[in-house]
Every structure is written in structure tokens, then in C-alpha cells.
């Protein structure tokens, strides 16, 4: 695991190297089939697991839609749509867009705000009144039309991480992505390599990287239990959002072979994948 972190936490200069002819074929697994939510679980604050209150999560026009038409007000009913199985080493790709108006009672910070929660807890272990799963949040933001507002930021409900060799306890840090105003589609990818490295990409450009994702420490310790993997979920935070693509490449079989893992990552990130409008 340590060797993986050393090899892949360096600047991605090796991405310009040639890829061996024997490089394996990599195939995206579609986590969302464009038809229904089979294989996904819903957990909304103040409600039991799989009580899809107000039909918050649904599928229409080939998209996962997060909507609040049946809410009288938001009332801090934060929700998450969990995929059926956990992952540890992977590259996930999500294409999303914000649309419409924020529901009444949604907090100001949640305007055009959603997220991809990774390395998260099992939804079955969440308390009924729990707002967010303990996880690493890849925060998705839309521009407000009045300044810079990057996307693919990092927030840490119940967690922390290491960046540039230092433990970071700040709840949210910004990426260096551009701002995406309006209802345009955006592609965010996340490379997660167990408990060693996580990298965020927006439309094919790296915007943030960090190491050693971990739970909040206990008993006065500086660092907490390392997160080697966990659940993946999509967030409902009071602003309507569509997800048209959720796909993943499982890299688990390369976890114990740093050289092959580096080769595979090189091949994957040599292609710049940009959301089409």
C-alpha cells in the first residue's frame, strides 16, 4: 500500500510515457442503466432505509433525477442514493447538471450543491436522524453567476485526510477547477486507491489530490482509522440535480501490483473525457 502511494502521489509525469502493448483492456461498468434504480438504496434523514420520501430519487428521460416537488419545505432532510456494493480501488465517472430552483427551506450553502460520497459507511448502519454518511465527499457545485465557485471540492463528514504530508482537519477545501454556470453537464471522475491516494478530475483535468483518507480520530490521536474503501452514494441537498451517467472501472485486481496499477492508471488518464452538452 505504501509503495502504491509513493508511485502514484508523484506528479503524473508518467502519463506521457508509452503504454505497453500488453496493457489490459479496461471496461466501464454501468452503475446506472438509464431505466430504473435497481441496485441502489435510498437513505433520507428522518426516514428509514429505502423510504424514498417524496419520491426524491427517480428516473426520468434516462437520468437519475433528484427532485423536491412533494416537499412542503426541505426541513434538513438530506438524502443519499447508495450503490449496491462497496469498492476500494477504482475510477468512478459521474456526469451531472443542476437545474431548476432550490426547494423552500434549503440552506444557503446548499444552493446548486450535491456530491459523490466515496469510502462511505454502509447505509444500514446510519442512524435515522443522521444527515450524512461518514465518508469522503467529492462536492459538486454549480456556479451562482456572480463569481468563482469550483466543483469537485472535498468535504469530510466524519472523516479527515492527509495533503502534502499534513493531516487536514478543515471540513471543506476547494479544488482548482473552473466554475460551471447554468444547466450545463459536467463530468467528474474520482480515482480512489484504497487508503493511499484519491484524485479528483473535472472534464479530464486533475483538480485535487490527497492521501490517507481516514475516520475522525478518537482519544486524542492525530490520525484516525484509515479508510480502505466503502460505499458510494449520490447526494440530495435541496437543489434539483440530474445524473445521466454513473460508471466505474474496478481496479481491485491490480491493488497488490503497483507497477501494473501505475500502467493501468496511465492508460485510463491518457484519455480526456469531457461531458457533451
UniProtKB/TrEMBL annotation:
<feature type="domain" description="3-keto-alpha-glucoside-1,2-lyase/3-keto-2-hydroxy-glucal hydratase">
    <location>
        <begin position="27"/>
        <end position="248"/>
    </location>
</feature>
<dbReference type="InterPro" id="IPR010496">
    <property type="entry name" value="AL/BT2_dom"/>
</dbReference>
<protein>
    <recommendedName>
        <fullName>3-keto-alpha-glucoside-1,2-lyase/3-keto-2-hydroxy-glucal hydratase domain-containing protein</fullName>
    </recommendedName>
</protein>
<dbReference type="Pfam" id="PF06439">
    <property type="entry name" value="3keto-disac_hyd"/>
</dbReference>
<dbReference type="GO" id="GO:0016787">
    <property type="term" value="F:hydrolase activity"/>
</dbReference>
